[in-house]
Request: fold
Amino acid sequence: MAKKSKFLEPSLFILISLAEKNRHGYGIMEDIEKTYDIKLGPGTLYGAISRLEKAGYINVMESQDRKKPYNLTKEGQLYLTEQIRDIQKVTSIGLKRLGLV
Amino acid sequence: MKWLVYLYPKSWRKRYGDELIEVLRQTGCSFRILLDLLSGIIDAWNIELTEKDLYGYRISQIVVVVALFNALILLKFIPLKEVILVEQIATAAVLIAMICLALSIGAFFMSLVRFGIKDCFSLKTKLNKISFGLMGAYAVFMATFIILIN
Reply:
């Protein structure tokens, strides 16, 4: 499992972005900005990408271009599912206790 | 802002450098991006020094041992405090010598991490030249200190 750090949240956004389709660094940044209105800096983005790649959650795809696309691995898919389920559990408890459901 | 990419550790730069330059080309530069890159550089060096091994020892552990060694040397001079207080020039000399030694070792290790074992013992790189120069300054200030306390 990836270390809990300030890069955990960007990591989740990156994994969600790659769950839709394979994207390169700038494509991931654009998708995150468009979807969540969060501007991820290039330093943070590549810090998170290097951690995710090291953890085996994403893979770089062969490309002659400087822009290298990344894809989500099976481990990455499992990790993301687990994380989203955890978040879902927390939000449903929160909503219940707030009397919103 | 591309030059900032060269502040990343060599292995990191080799793997992600081109991609990062490409992203920087598209994002352009701003103060926010500059700060973000600096934070990324610190983070990458932190990972590099934590994970990289040198003869089976983590570089971060070696740096701590070197720092402790320097601290012990400084503590050794505490009994001589009164003499050193009288000889203020000697105190300044020994402190500068210790700082030079610490910086020299730091520059050497940075060179070792960035350029590898083969190149770090040569004078080809700027870091090695700085390390060598600082070692020379250490020798000069240490000699000054020894002469003064004698």
Remarks:
- Chain A has one domain: 8-97.
- The CA atoms of residues 12 and 80 of chain A lie 7 Å apart.
- Chain A is about 60% helix and 5% strand.
